[in-house]
Amino acid sequence: MKVRVNVMLKEGVLDPQGKAIGHALDVLGFHGLGEVRAGKLIEIEVPAQNEEAAVEQGEAMARELLANLVIEDFTVEVVS
Amino acid sequence: MKVRVNVMLKEGVLDPQGKAIGHALDVLGFHGLGEVRAGKLIEIEVPAQNEEAAVEQGEAMARELLANLVIEDFTVEVVS
């Protein structure tokens, strides 16, 4: 099964990349935007029999490698 | 409204970052993984009245700045 791990900076953690993207969008003519935040997503084909096991594996991988839990939150969803 | 733009490398485009993540996960004990692909996600608070307009704005921003359409695909979804 394929899981998707979404990793975002926690609320309140400064996000200079998001700020830069927001500024660039404003320059390009997209005015009036609110907060812009950037994160990563990782899609992984896991050897799981069911959705529950797939999500568990995705969460374990996020905790151990994909997310820095001091400053980042993650969510895991099954894609297919 | 808040939209989320997911940007991934197109099928067939080499993804060294994904490969490196897959290798690191294997070293950490997550064996038997299939393909691993890395992408970015950008959450943007847009000044739209309805979901349709929000998605349209997200798509326009993806085309103009967030995605490199030569090598990347994107999807846009409304988060809230």
From TrEMBL, chains A, B:
Q: What is its main location?
A: cytoplasm
- Which keywords does this Swiss-Prot/TrEMBL entry list? ATP-binding, Cytoplasm, Ligase, Nucleotide-binding, Purine biosynthesis
Q: Cellular location of this protein?
A: Cytoplasm
Pathway, per Swiss-Prot/TrEMBL? Purine metabolism; IMP biosynthesis via de novo pathway; 5-amino-1-(5-phospho-D-ribosyl)imidazole from N(2)-formyl-N(1)-(5-phospho-D-ribosyl)glycinamide: step 1/2
Q: Which GO terms describe its cellular component?
A: cytoplasm
| Keyword Endoplasmic reticulum attached | no
Enzyme class, top EC level, equals ligase
- Cite the SUPFAM superfamilies for this sequence: PurS-like
Enzyme Commission number(s): 6.3.5.3
Q: What is stated as this protein's family in its record?
A: Belongs to the PurS family.
Assembly, in brief, is: Part of the FGAM synthase complex composed of 1 PurL, 1 PurQ and 2 PurS subunits.
UniProt name for this protein? Phosphoribosylformylglycinamidine synthase subunit PurS
Q: Can you name the source organism?
A: Neoasaia chiangmaiensis
Gene name of the record? purS
